[in-house]
Design goal:
Helices cover 52% and strands 21% of the residues. It contains four helices and ten strands; from the N terminus they run H-H-E-E-E-H-E-E-E-E-E-E-E-H. The strands form four sheets. It has a three-stranded antiparallel beta sheet. Helix 1 packs across helix 2 and helix 1 runs antiparallel to helix 4. The longest helix is centred in the N-terminal third of the chain and has 45 residues. The protein is elongated.
């Protein structure tokens, strides 16, 4: 009759596996956060090139909610509502209207409102007063660019970052 005592070894193996599981989870979190940063940078770059606006304006409009140990997902919030023309750059008066950056708005003019906010406006009709602030739309192109990045490139980038993090963790153990 043989009596084999392996309870200590099994507990040791289980604790070792649990430690490795924590490290793999940590690698996944780091890879997710790096992928989100990459996505934000790429989206901002491509949208600003497409719309011919400053990169800093687009960076401010993209926000990342990073992954944590309690939540294994990353959220990227994109504010794709219209940009006021006055925030794009300096307003320059031209013969036909006004120009901001590389965008020309025919019939546009710079004005300071009684409340103190300045901006670029355009008349709605021939009369003097119904005026509207000029805005640059982002919506169809920006959502298309972000959708293409998410659908076609993010998975490869995440895999690259995840493999890199895993190899770093396994080397340090």
């Amino acid at each position: 009759m043989f009596d084999i005592k392996i309870s200590n070894n099994i507990n040791e193996i289980i604790s070792n596996i649990e430690r490795k599981e924590q490290k793999i989870k940590l690698a996944a979190i780091k890879a997710l956060n790096k992928t989100a940063l990459w996505l934000k940078a790429q989206a901002a770059k491509e949208i600003s090139e497409e719309k011919k606006i400053k990169l800093t304006i687009m960076r401010r409009r993209l926000r990342i909610f990073k992954a944590k140990t309690s939540r294994l997902e990353v959220l990227i919030r994109a504010n794709l509502y219209d940009i006021r023309a006055s925030t794009i750059g300096k307003i320059q008066k031209t013969r036909r209207g006004s120009k901001v950056g590389k965008h020309e708005f025919i019939g546009g003019f710079a004005a300071v409102m009684p409340k103190g906010n300045s901006g670029m406006f355009k008349r709605e009709g021939r009369a003097a007063l119904p005026i509207k602030e000029v805005k640059l739309p982002l919506e169809p192109e920006a959502s298309r660019i972000i959708g293409n990045l998410v659908n076609y490139e993010v998975e490869e980038v995440f895999t690259k970052f995840f493999e890199r993090e895993l190899s770093y963790i396994t080397e340090s153990v």
